[in-house]
Amino acid sequence: TGCTLGVPQTSHILLLELIFETRKLLSYLSFKYHFLNGLAYTFFEGVAQMNSSEDRRIARTKAAIREALVALIEEKGFDALTVKDIATRANINRGTFYLHYKDKFDYFIPI
C-alpha cells in the first residue's frame, strides 16, 4: 500500500532528502568553519609578526638612546645634556624620544 510501519512512502523520501540536504549543509558549514579558522590564524599570525617586528624597532630605538645617553654623559655630564642632544646622537627625532620617555630623567625611572 506504500506504507512502512504506518508511515507513507513519500514521507520516507522527504526524510531522506532532508537528511541529504542536512549533510550537505553540515559539510558546507564545516568547510566554512575550517576556512575561516585558517583565515583567522593567518591574520593573527600576521599581527604577531607585525608586533614582533615592532618590538625589534622599539628595542633598536631604545638601544640607540641608551648608547647616546652613555656617550653624552661621559662627554658633557648628565646635567648639561638635553633631549635634543640625545636625539641627535641617537639619530632619531625628538618626537621619537618622547614616544618612549617623558624627559631625560624618565629614562632612569623603571616602569
Tell me briefly what this model is.
With about 110 residues, this protein is mostly helical. It contains 3 helices and 2 strands; from the N terminus they run E-E-H-H-H.
Please give the structural blueprint:
Elements: E1 3-4, E2 7-8, H1 9-76, H2 83-90, H3 94-100
Antiparallel strand pairs: 1-2
Care to describe what's here?
- The structure is a single chain.
- With 111 residues, the chain is mainly α.
- 75% of the residues lie in helices and 4% in strands.
- The protein is built from 3 helices and 2 strands.
- It has helices spanning 9-76, 83-90, 94-100, and strands at residues 3-4, 7-8.
- A two-stranded antiparallel sheet has the order 1-2.
- The protein is rod-shaped.
- The model has no long low-confidence stretch (mean pLDDT 78).
Low-confidence stretches: none
Largest sheet: 2 strands, antiparallel
Helix and strand succession? EEHHH
β-strand percent reads under 5%
Say how many strands there are: 2
Counting DSSP H or I runs of 4 or more residues, the number of helices is 3
Strand order across the largest sheet: 1-2
Radius of gyration: 33 Å
Mean pLDDT: 78
- Label the overall shape: rod-shaped
| Separation of the first and last Cα atoms | 85 Å
Content-based structural category: mainly alpha
The share of residues in helices is over 70%
Looking at this protein, list some descriptive labels.
111 residues; mainly alpha; two-stranded antiparallel sheet; 3 helices; 2 strands; 4% strand
